[in-house]
Amino acid sequence: MVRARSEERRADIVRAALEVIAERGYRGASLGAVAERVGLTQQGLLHYFPTKETLLVAVLAERDKWDTSGAGSREGWRLDLIDSLVEYNAMRPGIVQTFSALLGESVTEDHPARRFFTERYTQVRTEMATVLRLEFGERLPSGLTPERAAPILTAVMDGLQYQWLLDPAAVDMPAAFRDFLRLLYGGDGRDGEGGGAPGDLGDTSGK
Hints:
207 residues; 9 helices; 65% helix; 0% strand; elongated; disordered C terminus
């Protein structure tokens, strides 16, 4: 019973942190602001999450659960659904900023987010390979296997986020990702001009 209450409290804190991040961005998501949102003192919040980084890792893990809730995991996704996720991320800059900031910091030794991102990328590369195999079979039009293309697909998704966060007026993240998908389909003639993509990616409005 005590454990169930503790888990429920942790879930409340994570939801509050998501709300604060959405409203104030990464820098504004202080432990004090989150604690106030759930009716705790900052010291009380530290009982559940000893550092801001551990709380933000929990927020990102929860975000991943929500993003994959429809399919159970990215293994059930298609490329057009990933395209939709990129477009959705463009509507939530606070959480994308949190992800990107923690990702950059996590490359240092002993950072509390390092294990999360290491394990996440191992999982995501496997899932992206499955997505690509479902779409193309054992070889992409470029000749790459799904396993070799998966890290590139993953890198494009996360790399575009950094460019978009730094200069959103210059980088249309959803449109740039759709351009990358055209490169994946290059040479298969789907659109009659030497390339194609899932759905109708000739329309970059996202509709």
